[in-house]
Write a structure and sequence with these properties.
Elements: H1 3-19, H2 25-33, E1 54-57, E2 60-62, H3 65-75, E3 82-86, H4 92-99, E4 103-108, H5 111-123, E5 129-132, E6 145-150, H6 159-163, E7 165-176, E8 181-188, E9 194-202
Parallel strand pairs: 3-4, 3-6, 4-5, 6-7
Antiparallel strand pairs: 1-2, 7-8, 8-9
Length: 216
């Protein structure tokens, strides 16, 4: 595809996101800058700027741009924030966080996706700490985090992730059954107390792991 094709696609996507209610200019700027075509398989690069989730292998998807924009805007990322991402997938969500100045720590349970996302981010000069493993238990080595973003649907709030939030830290996570989930926004008030608010409904792939769904 010619680069002008992708440029036009990005511009059209930004207009769609604005009309859908995304108003955070920093997030829109990040999405306008990131080449989403680099994060999707070659066979569907022509669809890179559709506002839809796309398959990336291993029964996983690259999230719909609206979903990425909505979740990222909700977290109100500031430059220098330490952010844990559960479910690296294609690496596109991580790229958005990095573009906002976050220090990103990202965990992926699929070896092929872990490797391909790491390669894509490196090729784009975007720096993240990546780990292959069970994201439901977080990444305690670098905790606490200013923000945690979970890009797969959980049956309940994973206790390990809650405890890896900094005081005042926030987490956004879809919680529900394996067909649909409600996006929850959680704020850690102190050592023992958390506030949780329901946002809107989305549909994500299942969060698999010790504190998520089990395989099969």
């Amino acid at each position: 595809m010619h680069k002008d094709f992708y440029k036009t696609g990005r511009e059209r996507l930004i207009a769609q996101l604005r009309s859908a209610g995304i108003s955070d200019e920093r997030v829109l700027g990040a999405i306008a800058t990131i080449p989403r075509e680099k994060f999707v398989p070659d066979a569907i690069k022509s669809r890179a700027y559709e506002d839809t989730a796309l398959p990336i292998g291993n029964h996983q998807t690259i999230s719909q741009p609206y979903t990425v924009a909505f979740m990222t805007s909700a977290l109100n990322i500031k430059p220098g924030d330490s952010v844990l991402e559960i479910g690296t997938g294609s690496g596109y969500q991580a790229a958005t966080l990095i573009m906002l100045g976050a220090k990103v720590f990202t965990v992926e349970r699929h070896w092929e996706l872990y490797n391909s996302a790491k390669k894509t981010l490196d090729e784009l000069g975007l720096s993240a700490q990546s780990r292959f493993g069970d994201g439901t238990i977080g990444w305690s080595e670098f905790a606490p985090y200013d923000a945690i973003i979970v890009t797969a649907g959980a049956p309940e709030l994973p206790q390990s992730l809650l405890l890896q939030l900094a005081i005042g830290g926030r987490m956004i996570i879809p919680v529900g059954d394996e067909r649909s989930q409600t996006l929850k926004y959680v704020v850690r008030k102190d050592d023992r107390e958390f506030d949780a608010f329901d946002m809107q409904e989305f549909r994500f792939v299942p969060l698999i792991g010790k504190e998520g769904w089990t395989v099969g």
